[in-house]
Amino acid sequence: MSSPSLTAYFILGLLLIGAFAALVVGMRRHRLRIAQGLVEQPAAEESALLFGRSFNANTFVHRALLTERLWKRPAAGLAHTLLLGGAVVAILGHALFALSFVGVEVYSGWIGTVLMRWGRELAGLAMLLGVVFFLVRRLSGLERLIKGGERKGFLAMEVLLLVTVIAGFVAEGFRLATLPDSSSGEFIGNMLAAGLGGLGAEAVTRGEMLMWWGHGLLGVAFISLIAYTPLSHMLLGPANSALVRKRPGIQLAPIDFDSEDEELRLGASRIVDLSQKSLLDLSACVGCGRCQEACPAAQTGKALSPKTVMLACADYLAQGKIDDAQMIDDIGAEAIFDCTTCAACVEECPVSNSPAEIVLEMRRHLVMDRSEMPDSLAMVNRNLESRGHPFAGTAANPDDWKKGLDVPLFEAGETEYLLWLGCAVTYEERAQEVARAMVRILEAAGVSYGILGEARCTGDPAKMGGNEIQFVEMAQDNIEAFRERKIQKVITMCAHCYNSFDRYYPELGADWVTIPHAMLIEELIGQGRLQVERDEAELITFHDPCYLARHNDIVEEPRTVVSAVGKLIEMPRNKKEAMCCGAGGCNYWSTNKPGTPRISDVRTREAIDTGAAKIATSCSFCLLMLTSSATRDGPERKVFDIAELVADSLGEKHGSGKPAEVLPADA
Questions:
Q1: How far apart are CA 137 and CA 63, in angstroms?
Q2: 27-46 burial: b if 16+ Cβ within 10 Å, else e
Q3: Given phi > 0 = left and psi -120 to 50 = alpha, else beta, which region is 114?
Q4: Per the database record, which ranges form the 4Fe-4S ferredoxin-type domain (predicted)?
Q5: Radius of gyration of the chain (CA)
Q6: What is the 3-state secondary structure (H, E, C) of 81-100?
Q7: Are 582 and 296 in contact (CB under 8 A)?
Q8: What's domain 271-372's architecture?
Q9: Structural domain boundaries of the chain?
Q10: Quick one: the chain helix, strand, coil %, rounded to 5?
C-alpha cells in the first residue's frame, strides 16, 4: 500500500512555512497596535524588557506554564491542560516523524512505542476531550461568557480544531488499515481501521491520501488563523504574564506635572492615552468573564463590568480608533466611578490583565480633565482641599480619640515608631477605638512610639478618586513633615494608608519603612512581647482588606493574630479571593444605586453565615463599612479590628516592658 510521497510532504512543509509566516505577520500586527500606547517608565531597580516591563519569571511559570489561575475552576483547568499538553505531545510526534526521511525508524523501539504510538494517541484523545469541553460550554450559553459581550471567533476556531483532531484519527485509521498487523498503542486508529478494512485496498489507499491531506490542510488553516482570532491569547497571554509587575495589585503610573517634554495627559479617554502594557491587556483578553464574576460592583448590580470595559476598549483598538475620545463616553462615567479599586479583577484574570488600571486612568481623566464626577466625590475633593481630610459633617475633633490617654508626641532622634492615625481613625468615632486599642498594645509591649501633633491624611481618597494633583500635593506635604521629624518607621492602622505610604510615596521621595499594625502585632506576639489569653470557644471570622491581601500579599499575619485570641473560622471567600467591603475608590462616601444590594451588606452576610460571633478585620474603612451593615442584623457589636481583639485579650503579663526589637527593613 502507498503512503504520502516525499513530494506531498514537501508541499505540506511549504504550506506549514506559509502558515507560520501568517502567524508571525499577525502577531506583528498586534505588536504594532500595542506600540501605539504610552511607554512606561520601568521601576528604578528593574531593566525594561518590553513595554517598559521587566521579565517576571514567577508569574510566567505559574500563570503561563502551570496555568494556576485556570485551575481555580478545576474543569476548565483540566480542559486547558488536556488541550495544551496534548498539542505539545502531538507537535513533538509530528516533528519527529521528519526523521523517517533520513532513514530513522521512528515507529520502532521505545520512542516508537511510547511517543509515536501511545503518546500521540493519548495526546489526540486529550485534545479531543479538551476541545469538546470548550465547545459544549460555549454552546450551553454559560452566562459569564455571554453577559457583557463576546469575543467573536472562538466558536469557529474550536470547531476547526475539533474537525482537525477527528481528521487526524480518521487518517490514522486509514493508515493502519493498510498495514498487515495492527499497531499496539494506536487503539483509536485500530478501532477505526477495523471498520475500514471492508472497503477494499484501492478505496483504503485513496481514503488514506484524502484524509492525510485533509488533516494537514486543516492544521495549516488553524495555524494561519491563530493571530487573527481570539486564540491569539495562546501567545499574548503568556507574554502578558511574563510582563506582570513583581508587586501585586493595582499600580497607577505617576504623572509628571513638571514635565515640559510633551503634552501633559491627565488620565485616559482614548486608546492612545493608555500604556502599551494596557494595550497588551486588551489584546490578550478573551472575554471569559471571570473578572466580571469577581467584581463586587458587577455582582451587586452596579453599572461597572470589567469585562465590558475590556471588550469595548479592545474593539476600539482593533478598529484603529486610537484617537477617538468617544470610548470613555461609551463606557460611561457611572461605571467608571463604581470601581472600588479592590483588584479582584486583577487577581482573577488568567492572562494577567489589569482592567482596574484602565478604569482608573479613565477616572483620572474625568476628574482632572473634564471635572466630571459624582456629587459625593466632588464633596470629598472639596474637603481634601479645604480641610485636609475627606469627611464632611463629622462632629469629631482631631484629639477626641485620645481623651483620657497619655499619648506621646513623636520626638526626632528619640522615638522609634510614628503611630500614623489617618483620616478615618481621627474623624470617625467607631474607628477611633482602634487607635485607643493600639495605644494599649504599644504600651503593653514597651514599644517606643509617638504621634504627630496634627491631623493628616495620606491622600489615598484623592489618588483612588482620580485626583492625582491633590494626592501629590498632600503627599509632598507629608513627606516634608516626616523629613523634618526624621521619621524612619511608621505604623499604620488603615490598609489604604499603608498602600499609599509603601507603594506611591517612594515615587515622590519618601524613604521610611511602613508597617501595617497587623504585621507589627503579629511580630510582637511572636517575640513574646505581648501575652494574650486565647479563648478557644470564641469563634472569629476574618475579613481580608483588599489593600492588604490582593494589593500587598498580606494574608497570614492577621490570621495569626486572630488565632492567638480565638478560633478562626474562614468565610467561603477569603484571603486573596475575599470580597471587597465596598469602601475603596472613594465609594465609602458614595450613594448606593437604588434597587441593588450594598456590597458591604453582601460581605457582612457571608461573615455572619459562618456562625462566628465576631467579625475581625485590619482596616479602618473595612471596619466602618462592615459595622454599618452589621447593625442591620441587631444592635450587638459584631465587627472588630484585630487591635481591639488583642487589647481585650491582654493578660496580666505583657512582656518585659523594654522597647521592641527593630523590625527588618522588609517587614
A1: 22
A2: beebbebbeebbebeebeee
A3: alpha
A4: 276-307
A5: 30
A6: HHHHHHHHHHHHHHHHHHHH
A7: yes
A8: Orthogonal Bundle (1.10)
A9: 6-34+57-241, 271-372, 400-524, 527-648
A10: 60, 5, 35
Q: Is 555 exposed, middle or buried (0-12, 13-18, 19+ CB in 10 A)?
A: middle
Mean pLDDT over each residue of the chain, to the nearest integer? 91
pLDDT of residue 44: 59
Name the fold adopted by 400-524: Rossmann fold (3.40.50)
CA gap 174, 177 in Å, rounded? 5
The answer to whether the CB of 571 falls within 8 A of the CB of 535 is no
Q: Measuring CA to CA, which residue among 243, 263, 247 is closest to residue 255?
A: 263
Q: Please write the tens of the pLDDT for every residue from 189-223.
A: 888 988 887 788 888 888 889 999 999 999 999 99
> What single string gives the DSSP state of each residue in 28-62?
HHHHHHHTTSBPPPPPTT---SBTTB---HHHIII
Residue 73 or residue 651, greater confidence: 73
pLDDT the model gives residue 46 = 64
Whether the Cβ atoms of residue 581 and residue 626 lie closer than 8 Å to each other:
yes
What percent of the chain is predicted at pLDDT more than 90? 77
Predicted confidence at residue 663, as pLDDT, reads 38
At 22-51, the pLDDT tens digits run 999 999 999 999 999 998 876 656 667 788
- Asked whether the domain spanning 527-648 has the same topology as the one spanning 400-524, the reply is yes
Using CB atoms within 10 Å of the CB of residue 434, give its burial: 0 to 12 exposed, 13 to 18 middle, 19+ buried.
Answer: buried
CB crowding 519-531: b at 16 or more within 10 Å, else e: bbbbbbbeeebbe
| One-letter-per-residue 3-state SS of 445-511 | HCCCEEECCCCCCCCHHHHHHCCHHHHHHHHHHHHHHHHHHCCCEEEECCHHHHHHHHHHHHHHCCC
3-state helix/strand/coil string of 566-602: CEEECCCCCHHHCCCCCCCCCHHHCCCCCCCCCHHHH
Q: What is the pLDDT of residues 298-317, one digit of tens each?
A: 999 999 999 999 999 999 99
Under CATH, what is the fold of the domain 6-34+57-241?
Fumarate Reductase Cytochrome B subunit (1.20.950)
Q: What integer is the mean pLDDT of 257-261?
A: 74
Residue 357: all three cell numbers together: 488600571
Task: Please tell me whether residue 140 adopts helix, strand or coil conformation.
Answer: coil
- The predicted-structure confidence for 526-570, as pLDDT tens digits, reads as follows 999 999 999 999 999 999 999 999 999 999 999 999 999 999 999
Contact 663, 520 (CB under 8 A): yes
What is 527-648's CATH number, 3.40.50, 3.30.700, 2.60.40, 3.30.160?
3.40.50
Which tens digit of pLDDT belongs to each residue from 358-392? 999 999 999 999 999 999 999 999 999 999 999 98
Task: Pull the grid cell for residue 27.
Answer: 502577531
